[in-house]
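In this section we walk through a basic example: taking a raw amino acid sequence and producing a predicted 3D structure, encoded as discrete structure tokens. The instruction is simple. Fold the sequence below.
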Amino acid sequence: DDGLAAISRGCKSLNRLIISYCGELTDAGVEQIRQLEHLSHLELRGLKNITGAGLAAVACGCKKLDYLDLKKCENIDDSGFWALAYFARNLRQVNLKNIERINRPVW
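The resulting token sequence is shown next.
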């Protein structure tokens, strides 16, 4: 989480970020991505600790996002997708393979 925070603070012009299968990364780290306003391509594959809250933070800050890969991010629920639909107006392609919680009740 701290490393991603440092990248987000120091690399403001970053437009492509790939973070895959980092098992220790949490919403707190992913929420830092919202600082990357120029980000257009984001891959977050296999991040099992990421929830709708983390995705919502990314959606709110990364308005230029046009590609998002969430394959095997198993704990993202509909709340994150609602935020994505509302804030990420430039989104053109999304990979949601192996996300089981879509359309399930959030408890």
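Looking at the output, two observations stand out. The chain has a mean pLDDT of 91. DSSP finds four helices and four strands in the chain. In the next section we compare this with other chains.
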